[in-house]
Write a sequence for this structure.
């Protein structure tokens, strides 16, 4: 799990560097376009990982091992 966290953290840092570089505006247009495309790719990958983590966290496990997902509209009540 630690390698996944580091991978997530590394990608997040890379995305932050791209955003900072683009905000500074000192990048030639061709390089800015490449950085933007890479940033979108990283952002989608990070979003996917966060969604997967949320789905994992949103499961309730009964004492007998039965899993239930949380109802996203009512966090206090598991889905049937």
């Amino acid at each position: 799990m630690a390698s996944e966290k580091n991978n997530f953290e590394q990608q997040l840092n890379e995305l932050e560097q791209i955003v900072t570089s683009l905000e500074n505006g000192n990048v030639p247009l061709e390089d800015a376009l490449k950085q933007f495309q890479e940033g979108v790719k990283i952002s989608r990958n990070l979003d996917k990982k966060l969604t997967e983590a949320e789905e994992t966290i949103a499961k309730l496990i009964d004492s007998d091992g039965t899993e239930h997902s949380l109802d996203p509209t009512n966090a206090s009540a598991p889905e049937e």
